[in-house]
Design a protein that fits this description.
mainly alpha
Length: about 260
Amino acid sequence: MNNLRRSAIVFKAISKRELLKFSQQHARLLSALVRPLVWLVIFAAGFRSILGVSIVPPYQTYITYDEYVVPGLCAMVLMFFGMQTSLSMVYDREMGTMRLLMTAPFPRPVLLLFRLVSTGLIGVLQVYAFLGIAMLMGIEFELINLLFVAPTLLLSALMFGALGFLMSLGIRQMENFAGVMNFVIFPCFFMSSALYPLWRIRESSPLLADIGAWNPFTHAVEAIRHQLYGQFQTFSVIYLLVVTVLCLAAVMFAYEKHDIMKAS
């Protein structure tokens, strides 16, 4: 019981710090919402008459393109925030904040997990803010499905955060990590079902479609898409869970066994 209480206190402290830091970064919140809204308002309007979406699960009828891209844009919010969180990890290592946290009398893997969960929750709140704006623009979702999708949003946020943490292990300077982000974010986003169904990609390039089928971002998009419409995509959720566990295990092992915090 004492360990559980101590864990709750530590998690509350880390969550409070992350929330306070994020609340003071108004430009970051604005950019997190503007980026998907640009795709929804501008690109979706331009592609609406060009790209039609057939009746495929979870949809029961033909839908407009802007309705199709909303789940992918939700995943985009989570991925960008997860990668930015990892960028802050590099910054914290340089400035000493993360070194101070790691000197706390608490297991390093647990501290990392608490930070990952706390930032993941902030990412989920951003997604709900985006979904609220999308609903004001005419995209309809049932309230029960908005609640139903919450665990998958958090799992996706954890996966993207764990992937970012894993990439940040061998990076000492923020400038280098920004370049790595560009080589990861954009291929993951465009080689997925976020903007167009994989069967459309397969028509022109079967290889890219096969890559997209194994892309973790694709499974985040599809899991979110199905649950927003009251369905459960079992394979995608299991895939996300496996990737998340593997990345977390690798990150926790690295922080526990090696001197990651050593400045270069």
